């Protein structure tokens, strides 16, 4: 009897959790999904614990998804006329928001473009000093 109640409670909890997660993810818009995918690619680009081959494989796989998501954002009619800070910043920073498209247009790697947009150059890295502040 007690085992049956525990099983029913856990099942109900599992269904409630699944429903909540489904509803939450359903509200994510195209711009939010793009931001999440772009963050994952940048994390892969900067991850020192993976080999160059693993990094290249992950980036090639993710790049196709990122291009598709960028297209979705560019075609998303629900973003037209929205004046939220997220939408304004996204379209003001085209090269960062649409990283895959921008890198293709400029014929540079996504990593090089991202570093350039962040203001990190070879000279700034070479002139950097390691130490405490």
General description of the model:
The protein is 74% helix and 0% strand. The longest helix has 25 residues, at 2-26. It has 133 residues and is mainly α. Residues 1-14 and 16-26 have low confidence and may be disordered. The chain is built from eight helices and no strands. The chain has helices at 2-26, 30-46, 52-75, 85-92, 94-97, 99-106, 110-117, 122-126. α2 runs antiparallel to α3 (52-75) and α6 crosses α7. It starts with a helix and ends in a 7-residue tail after the last helix.
**Largest pleated sheet:** none
Number of helices: 8
Number of strands: 0
**Helix coverage percent:** over 70%
Order of helices and strands: HHHHHHHH
| Class by SSE composition | mainly alpha
Mean pLDDT: 79
Distance between the termini: 64 Å
Which word captures the global form?
A: globular
Strand content: under 5%
Runs in which pLDDT lies below 50 for 5 or more consecutive residues are 1-14, 16-26
| Computed CA radius of gyration, to the nearest angstrom | 21 Å
């Amino acid at each position: 009897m007690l085992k049956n109640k525990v099983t029913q409670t856990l099942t109900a909890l599992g269904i409630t959790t699944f429903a909540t997660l489904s509803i939450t993810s359903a509200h994510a818009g195209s711009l939010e999904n793009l931001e999440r995918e772009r963050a994952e690619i940048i994390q892969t680009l900067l991850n020192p614990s993976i080999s160059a081959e693993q990094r290249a494989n992950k980036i090639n796989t993710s790049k196709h998804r990122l291009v598709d998501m960028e297209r979705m954002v560019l075609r998303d009619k629900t973003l037209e006329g929205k004046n939220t800070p997220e939408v304004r910043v996204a379209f003001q920073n085209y090269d960062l928001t649409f990283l895959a498209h921008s890198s293709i247009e400029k014929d540079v790697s996504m990593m090089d473009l991202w570093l350039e947009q962040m203001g990190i150059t070879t000279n700034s890295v070479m002139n950097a000093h390691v130490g405490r502040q």
